[in-house]
Amino acid sequence: MYTEKNSDQGKTIGIYSYLTIIGTIIAMINNAEVKSPFASFHIRQALGLIVSFFALGYLVGYFDSWAVSMAFYIFFFILWIYGFAGAVQGQMNLIPILGPLFQKVFKTI
After folding, report:
1. Residue 37 is part of which domain span?
2. Whose CA is closest to 97, among 78, 69, 70, 84?
3. Where does the chain show beta strands of DSSP type E?
4. Each residue of 48-86: pLDDT tens digit?
5. CA 88 to chain CA centroid, nearest Å
6. Do residues 33 and 60 lie in contact, with contact meaning Cβ atoms separated by under 8 Å?
7. Cα angle for residues 71, 75, 14 (degrees, 5° grid)
């Protein structure tokens, strides 16, 4: 049964998911027993951001330009802010560009 308490708990779990990889793991564990669609949505978005940040960051590390690195960090920071703000506001907005892919790849979460 989906009650107001579950809704608040889902929002809290969604917010936790954006707080580093440890927050995402804690959110996944907390969402395991009573699945909240809101929390699952934000866990998928946050996990996708983290995985793509490290995968692409490894490639960006080979560029010997501070401008490329700075643009990369700013890009991911803006995506993170967008996702985190959505979780805080209780909205299920896909992260631009990569959000639909994250929902598809991590659909089992």
Report:
1. 4-105
2. 78
3. none
4. 999 999 999 999 988 878 899 999 999 999 999 999 999
5. 12
6. no
7. 155
Count of the separate structural domains present in the chain: 1
Give per-residue pLDDT as tens, 83-101.
Answer: 999 999 999 999 998 999 9
Token pair in block for residue 27: 């959110």
Place of tokens 């991911």: 76
User: Are the C-beta atoms of residues 42 and 85 closer than 8 Å to each other?
Assistant: no
Backbone Cα Rg of the chain: 15
Sign, CA torsion 12/94/28/59: negative
Structure tokens at 8: 């608040």
pTM for this predicted structure: 0.87
Tokens encoding 25: 């793991």
